[in-house]
Amino acid sequence: MLDILKYPFMVNALIVGVLIAVCCALLGVVLVLKRYSMIGDGLSHVGFGALSVAAVLNLSTPIYLSLPVVTISAFFLLRITENSKVNADAAIAVISSSALAIGVFIASINGTNINLQQYMFGSILSVGKSDIVISIILAVFVIAMYFLFYNKIFAITFDENFSSATGIRTGFYNTIISLLTAITIVVGMRMLGTLLISAMIIFPALTSMRLCKRFATVIITSVIISVFCVLSGLFTSFTFKDVPVGATIVIFNLVVFLIFLLISLFYKKFSKKTKD
After folding, report:
1. Rounded to whole angstroms, how far apart are CA atoms 232 and 238?
2. CA distances from 178 to 152, 173, 225 (A)
3. pLDDT tens for residues 248-272?
């Protein structure tokens, strides 16, 4: 632990990793329950395309280009999901695959293939001071949103039509959630990569739902799981130098999910025998 703190890039990764883990867990619960989880995957691919363009333009801070592009895409995808005439899954698949193809094409024709692996799978070394600042601001907004609008978020998560009928501005809260999700993905994919950041949104929520039934309990458990997996992945990647941090974090999420799944199956089987 003390050895890790000697390296500035690891300190940056720890700070950003924990903050992004908290944001992914909080936003992921809502997105998974609302069946919007694939939006994260679509936005991450859009982010890859934006990062490729930023690399071609030789921008010193690519996040300043990818952030507005992914944010605009989040609003666009939100409008698609709200339009019953358009299949949301198909639209997200088209946008994500197109953005990924554009990113690979632009990077390839300009001889910047060396950056593709870093963008796709992430890199601890890519996390800088600007990511820390944005992560802190983002975490403050996400946590504040839950504290200030917990009841409204709970309502629109489980019954959006009823919430709208009772006067809750569902469109406004959905927009805020999409905006925060877009920022979380842009910052997080610098460390985990475009192909793995969506797992950080989906896994903690799905894992906690195996055992937890109350909304508040699911949220708290998701945060704990998310932070644990990020820290475990960072420590493992630091200890074994050739292990990619993004893949390691996702593997830890997978292992925890399987453990929770087995416990839930055992608990259900035990409860059934007890009742019999």
Report:
1. 10
2. 16, 9, 22
3. 899 999 999 999 999 988 887 777 6
Q: Is-contact 209 263, C-beta < 8 A? A: no
Distances (CA, A) of 42 to 8, 96, 251, 261: 32, 4, 21, 27
CA distance 198 to 195: 7
Q: How far apart are CA 176 and CA 268, in angstroms?
A: 37
Distance (Å, rounded) from C-alpha 78 to C-alpha 171?
9
Given a cut of 70, the residues of the chain with pLDDT beneath it are 1-2, 60-61, 81-88, 110-119, 125, 272-276
Can you tell me whether residue 276 is helix, strand or coil? coil
Instruction: Output phi, psi for 119, to 5 deg.
Output: -70, -35
